[in-house]
Each structure stands twice: as structure tokens, then as C-alpha cells.
Amino acid sequence: MKSRYTYLYGLKKGLPIALGYLSVSFGFGITAVGQGLSGIEAILISLTNLTSAGQVAGVSIIAAGGSIIEMILTQLIINIRYCLMGLALTQKLDKSFTTIHRLITSFGITDEVFAVGASEKEHIGTKYMYGLITLPFIGWSLGTALGAFAGEILPASVCSALGIAIYSMFVAIIIPPSKTNRGVLFCVLISALMSCMFYYVPLFKGLSGGFAVIICAVTSSVIMALLKPVREEEEELNE
Amino acid sequence: MNKEFFMYLLAMALVTYLVRMIPFTLMRKKIKSVFIKSFLYYVPYAVLSAMTFPYIFYSTGDVITSSVGCAVAFILAYINRPLIEVAIASCVVAFVSGLIF
Which of A49, A187, A213 sits opposite B16 (nearest CB)? Predict the structure, then answer.
């Protein structure tokens, strides 16, 4: 049976991610240059890191002249969620994922790429994964370049409206399964409530965004895994 | 560009890549535990939810246009429209509502 998970299908799934990244990385480009980095440096960071929270934290460490150890620890803490995501994603991979493809595509695992890939109904192949990563990578780098070199190239009103794209896409991923699956619905609600608590309650203000996300996600997923374990037929993948 | 920047860049890029690469490359087995499987099944939705709320309401820099865009996203997602359509429609509506409000 020919898989519908082609390179083109992956590209299509990656387009909204890329649009969202374009606006987020545009902001990153502006921030980085504002903190004293050159445009080329900002672009190099985006090309080699492909992550939002880690890069923003990294730039502030560079600007403050922090130590390499501080940089390593900060990146480790903020990005440790990718460990969990990478692990979860391995359960969705088909046999086309040999070591070399894993080494290459793991570079492109972002929160959004993971979420889209992991929410596919069937096993995914390398072609789909390369497709999924392509546009977000281009969008992320291009947005950084635009932000770093031409803050005025787009009207501010257009830039700010683009800011919602990525979140709307998240909504479009979590709502449909929440309608039909009570477990997903409660998991999403618990996680959202906790996230709002971390955001609004002054006591938690010091907690970094990366940490907050991991605490919300782990807590709500553990609760639902205990209360509503996924039945075999629900998560059974088409081999 | 100086050597100092290069060291920072190397540290950032290397740590970020390694946390992604190591589990993704080494894990070859199918997980048997129902608990862990269930946990991993819920994680993506939980991550997205935590990243979306409450940030979506501030995503355009204005609570009103963000909320209007968010409402559109909710409605279109509820009727199972494709991701790209939901994303673009909410941007357009947020942009247009910015012109009105």
C-alpha cells in the first residue's frame, strides 16, 4: 500500500508552521540585533539551532557575556523537552528511518514539527519527515534574516497579525481530537489551566517558559495516562 | 564575527542538537508499557495546549484582535478545517479586526 505520507504532504503540513515561524523569527532577528549581535550572527544562530526559547535565552547570555557553562546549562534545561518529544516520535516511525535519516531529521524536531508528526494517524516515513521540516527551517531562517536586516520591510500591522498563525495551528491540532476523545479533552484542559496559572500567578513568575511547558505537559499527561490509559484499538497504528 | 561568538554558537547548537538526536536515534524498540504509551500519546496535545494558553490571547500584541483571531480558529478547528486554512483565516481576521478596532 502506497503511503499518503509523501514529501509533498509533509510540505503542506509544514506550511502553517513556517508561516508562524516567519513572524516569530522576525521578532528574534530584531531582538538579536537590538542586543548587539550582527545580522549574520543572528542568522547563523537560527540556521544551527532552529528553536525559539533557547535562542532568545542564548542571545541574552551572549549579550551579557555569560560563561559557556551557563550557556550549556541553559540550553539543556530549555531544550530538554526535545528529548521527550524525540522519544515519543520514535514510536511513530516506519522502517525507512535508518540511522542516517534519524541523525539528519532529528535536527528538525521542534515543538510544532513534533506535534504535527506525532498527531498523524499512521506511521510516518522519511519523505514525509523531510517535507515537514523543509518549510519551517526556511521560514525560521528567512524570518530571522528579514528581522535582522529589514525591520521595516513589512508593515507592523501585518507582522503582528502573523503572530497568531502558529497558535491557531495549535488550536486546529488539539480541538478535533478533543471533541471525540475525553482523555485528550481533559489532558488539554488541565495543561491549559496549569499554563495559565504559571503565567498569571506572581509566585511562578520566575519560572522560564520552557520549564513551565514541560511541567504542564508532564503533569497533565501523567494524570490522564493514569485515569484514562489509551486502549489498544485507539492507538493501534496501521503497520 | 569573533572567536568568542563562535564558542557560544557551538555550545548552543551542539547542546540543542544532542538533546534532539540522542533519544531519536537510539530508541529502536516499541514501548510495551500501557502507562508509558498512554503518557506519550497525551504529551503532544498537552505540550501544544500549554504553549497556546494563555499566549494566543497576546499573540498579535493586542488582546482584542488576538481574541477575535482565536475565536475564528476555534470555530474552524471545531468543524475540522485543515491546519493551513485555520492558520491563515485567523491571521486575516486578526489583521482586519486590527483595522476596525
Answer: A49
Distances (CA, A) of B80 to B76, B86, B99: 6, 9, 28
Nearest CA in chain A to B31: A91
ipTM of the complex: 0.83
Count of other CB atoms within 10 angstroms of residue A67: 11
Residues 133-162 (A) with a CB less than 8 A from some CB of B: 157-158, 160-162
Task: Give 10-residue mean pLDDT values along chain A (239 residues).
Answer: 78 87 79 83 94 80 84 79 85 88 92 87 90 95 86 68 78 91 95 93 74 82 93 48
Q: Are B12 and A75 in contact (CB under 8 A)?
A: yes
Residues 47-66, chain B, touching A (beta carbon < 8 A):
47-56, 59-62, 65-66
Say which amino acid occupies B26: L
